[in-house]
From TrEMBL:
GO biological process: 'de novo' IMP biosynthetic process
Broadest EC class assigned to this enzyme: transferase
Described purpose of this protein according to its UniProt entry: Catalyzes the transfer of a formyl group from 10-formyltetrahydrofolate to 5-phospho-ribosyl-glycinamide (GAR), producing 5-phospho-ribosyl-N-formylglycinamide (FGAR) and tetrahydrofolate.
Family stated for the protein in its record: Belongs to the GART family.
NCBIfam families assigned: PurN
GO cellular component term of the entry, any: cytosol
Residue positions binding N(1)-(5-phospho-beta-D-ribosyl)glycinamide: 14-16
E.C. designation(s): 2.1.2.2
Catalytic activity reported: N(1)-(5-phospho-beta-D-ribosyl)glycinamide + (6R)-10-formyltetrahydrofolate = N(2)-formyl-N(1)-(5-phospho-beta-D-ribosyl)glycinamide + (6S)-5,6,7,8-tetrahydrofolate + H(+)
Organism: Herbiconiux ginsengi
Annotated positions for site Raises pKa of active site His: 146
Gene3D superfamilies: Formyl transferase, N-terminal domain (3.40.50.170)
Descriptive protein name: Phosphoribosylglycinamide formyltransferase
Length: 199
């Protein structure tokens, strides 16, 4: 079995990271998290430490420019030579030089059915729009904001009276499963990122 090496980038609690760590602790799952990076002292780094996975932090405010931050982040990523970079709740837009160096082997999860509701407030925006269905997208990262080619999507119902927190929690549950499945499909060749990016 060919095993895909994953480097995961996070900014927050790391629930998607934990789902990948738990999946990759199964010998039958064809991917392994080899390192976790963050742009902040994220609470989710504790998950990596629990699973004895190396971590690194590259804080944007420590650099004179976004490009300088991106160059250091890319250097840290490339040090591990991962097969796939997974942005799992990583809340910063990557500089173009980072994207071009890594694409199409860099993917992201987004809590909406793209192209609907891109950006940082997708759940709030879906509620404000009054839709009865939203969902989750796993996509290849390109140089736009949530504009990269879609790998897979799954719908999540919006219930009357949903708060942003309630809807987001329901989305996160689906998001974790979808990300684990997407990485599995990439690892076993059911999904070809080069082909998807060329569409």
């Amino acid at each position: 079995m060919t095993v895909l090496s994953l480097l995961v980038l996070i900014s927050g609690g790391g629930s998607n990271l934990r789902a990948l760590l738990e999946a990759s602790s199964d010998a039958e799952y064809p991917a392994r998290v080899i390192a976790v990076g963050s742009d902040t002292d994220a609470a989710g780094l504790a998950h990596a430490e629990e699973f004895e996975i190396s971590t690194f932090t590259v804080v944007p405010t420590s650099f004179a420019s976004r490009e300088a931050w991106g160059a250091e982040l890319l250097e840290q990523i490339e040090r591990w030579s991962p097969d796939l970079v997974v942005c799992a709740g990583f809340m910063r837009i990557l500089p173009p030089a980072v994207v071009s160096a890594l694409t199409p082997r860099i993917i992201n999860t987004h809590p909406a059915l793209l192209p609907a509701f891109p950006g940082a407030h997708a759940v709030r925006d879906a509620l404000a729009a009054g839709v009865d269905t939203t969902g989750v997208t796993v996509h290849v990262i390109d140089e736009g904001v949530d504009t990269g080619p879609v790998i897979v999507q799954r719908s999540v119902p919006v219930y009357p009276g949903d708060t942003e927190h309630e809807l987001h929690e329901r989305i996160k549950s689906v998001e974790r499963d979808l990300l684990v499945q997407a990485v599995l499909d990439i690892a076993n060749g059911a999904v070809d990122l080069e082909e998807i990016a060329a569409r």
